[in-house]
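CHAIN AND CONFORMATION:

***
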Amino acid sequence: MSAFEVPNVHIDALLTAGLRFAETGYPLSWYWPSPTAASDPGNWTSSELQLESSQRRRSLSLQTAGRVGAMLLAENRASVNHRYAEDEIEEPYLFTWLPGTPDPIVVLKALACYEYQSCEHPGWRGSEAYQFCDALRLQAIGRLPRYSDAPWIIDDADVFLTARARDR
């Protein structure tokens, strides 16, 4: 598998999408490091776990976009460094807002590319970048055409048949 550094505009696109999606829904947020129930393994609603979760909650905003973008680039650079036994650091990052309305399919493909280029090192699955990608993916999926029309629970064995086929 090969790896390369994604361009800054790729990161700008991911961040712009997350910020735009927040305008019509919920702010993009994720936990890092992921909360654990170690403070009270028998009670997931314990005050200790709630405190731990609030301390680990990250979110994307205009104020945090630069930090989040730098974090994403650093994770991508760590992958390239690991893959090619390099020890380079990433260039400084400054967020640039992209014009237009993000297409969820373009965002999903951009996430797939970013993840493919950033997953080469052993710490990828536990990284903040991984958590960010998961949160943005969920936001993008929810904006796919007809997603909101699909059933939440499937209780009909003919769910995959088109309406036209069912009416025959």
